[in-house]
Amino acid sequence: MSKNDSKILLSWIASNNDFDKGEVKTSGPTWQFHQYFFTHDRHIILSSKPDEDIRLEKLLNRLMLDFPDRRDKIEGRYMNIPDNDVINVFALKPKVEALLLELSATAKQIDVFISPGTPAMQVVWYLCQSGLGLPMRLLQTREAKFTQNNLPELIAVEAEQSTIPISVVVRQQLNDSPEQESDYLITDALSPVYSRAKRISETERVTCLIQGASGTGKEHLARYIHQQSNRVKRPFIAVNCSALGDSLLESRLFGHEKGAFTGAEKATEGFFDAAKGGTLFLDEIGDISPYMQQTLLRVLQEQEFTPVGATKPRKADVRIVAATHKPLRQACQNGQFRWDLFYRLSVAELYLPPLSERGLPDKQALIKHFVKAKQKAFRKPNPLKFTTAAKKLLDMYLFPGNVRELENLIESLYVFTDGTVDVADLPDWLQHPDSPESSFKWEFHEKELIRRALQYFNGNKSKAKEALGYGSINTLMDRIKEYKI
Ligand SMILES: Nc1ncnc2c1ncn2[C@@H]1O[C@H](COP(=O)(O)OP(=O)(O)OP(=O)(O)O)[C@@H](O)[C@H]1O
User: Fold this and answer.
1) Apex CA 288: angle with CA 126 and CA 321, to 5°?
2) 420 CA distance to ligand 1 middle (Å)
3) Among 75, 85, 98, 283, which is least packed by CB within 10 angstroms?
4) Is residue 8 part of a domain?
């Protein structure tokens, strides 16, 4: 059987229902699925833990013991989702999407057994099925006691099928719900960036490259450009290039003809067509392969693209806004990214600084903004309040995950507090400056300084060593290794 023919089964471990007093239950959903319905080439059982989930290991062992012919087919996958997030659709979705996209590169069919897992996990399966446009089936089982023949039954759940991609990996701004001006908080530190963006938006079709660390608001800024431009009535489509392999990315961007490859049962339009007249946001552009770099360069030069399997090119009418968290110039210098594509993309360049460089008033303004925005979103009668001690910790914290981390924090405080936030309500790493992840620790700052010095000197270690004041290059090398920079 070729890799492309594989039929994959995915499911979360049912931490309670698959076990009884810590031992695997043969009446649990996962064991039962194997007993009655498993016809797959591979079963990936997901655990939300970062690693060493003893329950997952026990379940895998038991399944391999009871169904020995499936030993090579059953595997576990650790998804590393913080405990608070297993009930958070927004936190779960990107991780599940990335997994599905990874698997879709080789799988012909992805079946998801949706019964095990939290309600949020089930919602995410639905959203992914309707949003990603992958060959996915959602399966549920009906227990034997509820069926006519006293045997468990398999039911395929039909979630609403939509041709409009709505996922985080591929998002479309619907024209009837345009973003509000108030969604964009333009703080003092961001003001120069946003005024440049406004000028770019007023210039028809100029290509733009946004650089900045993860969570600094690159996509947000791209939407702003779209929103301010005269393309606003047309779609904004965002594609995460790093989540897709070459062939999938190519067929998603340019579309494909019927029969262009195995499984291409009908002609499908790509994002260049779907975003016609609008804006295409290519996120993580620094991660695309040399082949895709060359293909994209041709499209930008000729303003035309050819769907996979087609002979005639089509006119491209999109504004491209690309983004990356990688220093792209350095990637060009190292030969990993083409200079010619870099210059085509960076006709206008924008840089979003990390939160730690934006100053305290900016951070405070963002906190205020999200407190208000999330109060509205969660329909809370009152805005969050912070005790003086909690406020002080927030002021000191550097938010290495940038605006996204700050926004997620405010969201979770609305969910997990009753409206007043004290020190004890803040995450551990904020409360305990000694925890390994804490930005209060010297190591955190040292790592950040090394990272910036290397970036500034384009990776030149001896210049970075001088600037950082290390006695020898070996000290710098040791730190780089220790901090996994
Ligand atoms: N100026 C801003 N005003 C309001 N919200 C913002 C602003 N900047 C960023 N955000 C919010 O912060 C979150 C992260 O922003 P965004 O997804 O644009 O970051 P990013 O740099 O594209 O991240 P990544 O590189 O990880 O994809 C989003 O929810 C976004 O709405």
Assistant:
1) 80
2) 26
3) 75
4) yes
Pair 348, 360 in one domain: no
Last residue of a domain, one of 320, 335, 352: 352
pLDDT band at 318 (very low <50, low <70, confident <90, very high): very high
Say yes or no: CB of residue 354 within 6 Å of ligand 1.
Answer: no
Distance 408 CA to ligand 1 centre (A): 11
Best residue for ligand 1 mutational test, from 220, 368, 399 (most atoms within 8 Å of Cβ): 220
Protein residue whose Cα sits closest to atom 9 of ligand 1:
217
Range of the domain at 106: 3-157
Please tell me the pTM assigned to this model.
0.62
> How many domains in the chain?
4
User: CA–CA separation, 31 vs 54, rounded Å?
Assistant: 17
Q: Dihedral angle at the C-alpha atoms of 450, 453, 457, 458, nearest 10 degrees?
A: 50
Q: Is a pLDDT exceeding 90 seen at residue 158?
A: no
Report d(CA 474, CA 480) in Å as an integer.
Answer: 10
Beta partners for residue 138, in sequence order: 112, 157
Query: Does residue 48 sit in the same domain as residue 67?
Result: yes
pLDDT tens for 410-448 read 987 887 788 999 999 887 777 765 555 555 556 666 777
Give me the residue label for tokens 């946001």.
281
- Do 205 and 294 lie in one domain? The reply is yes
Higher model confidence: residue 77 or residue 89?
77
What whole-number distance in Å separates Cα of residue 295 and Cα of residue 312?
A: 15
User: Averaged over 1-30, what is the pLDDT?
Assistant: 81
Atom of ligand 1 nearest to the CA of 184: 3
Per-residue model confidence (pLDDT) at position 378: 75
Residue 176: what pLDDT?
34
The pLDDT tens digits of the residues spanning 110-154 come to 999 998 888 778 888 887 887 777 888 888 877 666 666 667 777
Is there a single domain that holds both residue 334 and residue 360? no
Q: Which of 319, 352, 385 is the last residue of a domain?
A: 352
Q: Is the CB of 216 under 6 A from ligand 1?
A: yes
Answer yes or no: is the C-beta of 184 below 6 A from any ligand 1 atom. Answer: yes
Q: How many CB atoms are closer than 10 A to CB 397?
A: 22
